[in-house]
Amino acid sequence: MEMNIALLPGDGIGPEVIAQAVKVVKAVGQKFGHQITFKEGLVGACAIDATGDPYPDATHEICAASDAVLFGAIGDPKYDNDPKAKVRPEQGLLRMRQKLGLFANVRPTFTFPSLVHKSPLKLERVDGVDFVFFRELTGGVYFGEPRGRNEQGTKAFDTNVYSKEEIVRLARMGFEAAQKRRKLLTCVDKANVMATSRLWRETVQELAAEYPDVKVEYEFVDAVAMRLIQWPKAYDVLITENLFGDILTDEASVISGSMGLMPSASLGSKVKLFEPIHGSYPQAAGKDIANPLATVLSAAMMFEYAFDMKEEAQAISDVVNLSLAEGVVTEDIAEGGKAYKTSEVGDWLAAKILG
Ligand code: IPM
Ligand code: MG
Questions:
Q1: DSSP tag of 45
Q2: What is the separation of C-alpha 218 from the centre of its chain, rounded to a whole number of angstroms?
Q3: What's the rounded Cα separation, in Å, for the pair 300 and 313?
Q4: Rg (CA), the chain
Q5: Which of 92, 70, 245 is nearest to 173 (CA)?
Q6: Beta strand 237-240 pairing with 156-157
Q7: Active site (annotated) includes residue 79
């Protein structure tokens, strides 16, 4: 099959981890006989430096013409402590999500047997955890208008808005995912306080009739924040609005003990985007020490979700598990064993796929 992949390495460790994913994707292409072409674009702080725009039109054209996007990370400390900066790297990410129509962010949490002891939670609570968030990504308070300040600058406001249509399309993805998994869907909201949440709950209640095989639970977001660390095995598929999803998926990312290992997918239209959930980790940039596995696993998600190639995805997951079992890992998880360089891990994985 012919596959056109847009590469957006972005900032910080982004370029290094994307380079390893590219090695692995090329190896998979060679092994399974796929014709893969890559086109690279600028996004984030590096795009601001080069063009003044965190998501330049040229980058959007590359993404829109591709079959899938592999994205590294964005962000630079020089913007974090300057709330007055007019142009920010994060604006690029939000505009990219919006322009590509990526309304669903899929963030799984699962455990790796060889790393589960690194979880901050007790082993019996995490061993075997396997749930997935479907976070709404192009609506809510992230995009709602009006937003801003009053004339004196002494009051600020953001607006949370959801249309029924936005809720339906996200919820349907959650229901369909639940049907293929353990058939439990949790709708996370704050319906005891917020009008938007009441619309979420009402809409999901209506849809539930169409999915009689899925059990639906409704939980307030504060309770989920608590239960996620108390009893994470209670969850299967969770659906939620943009801001709640942003917060809860960061919480979820540390449960399995391997934040540097969790991949994600953003779906919604023809072009799908795949990215590690960790950030740009500027302290490690350029040092060849960052863990590339979350990006490599994001490439596995790409084969599965963008190209429906389960075998290829499995081949990648298998070599990642092998690298963990054999200790071919970067310093963050080396635990006193040999710490491999980012590039060495990428070379090893690619060689194993071909070997
Ligand atoms: C994420 C990030 C972004 C978000 C930031 C960088 C704008 O935290 O992808 O979760 O809030 O969506
Ligand atoms: Mg976030």
A1: H
A2: 24
A3: 4
A4: 20
A5: 245
A6: unpaired
A7: no
Write down the mean pLDDT value for the chain. 96
Pick the residue whose CA is nearest to atom 2 on ligand 1: 246
CA atoms of 268 and 69, how far apart (whole Å): 13
Cβ of 43 less than 6 Å from ligand 1: no
**Does residue 176 have its Cβ closer than 6 Å to ligand 1?**
no
Residue identified by tokens 């847009």 is: 6
Residues with Cβ < 8 Å from 256, sequence gap 6 or more? Answer: 109, 110, 111, 112, 115, 116, 119, 126, 129, 262
Catalytic residue flag (residue 215)? no
DSSP 298: H
246 ligand 1 Cβ < 6 A: yes
* pLDDT tens profile 156-192: 999 999 999 999 999 999 999 999 999 999 999 999 9
**Residue 258 clears pLDDT 90, i.e. is over it:** no
Mean of the pLDDT values across residues 38-46? 97
* Catalytic residue from among 49, 80, 82, 250: 250
Q: Rounded to the nearest 10 degrees, what angle do helices 293-307 and 14-32 cross at?
A: 50
Phi-psi region of 133 (alpha: psi -120 to 50; beta: other; left: phi over 0): beta
The CA 246 to ligand 1 mean position distance, Å, reads 7
Predicted model pTM? 0.94
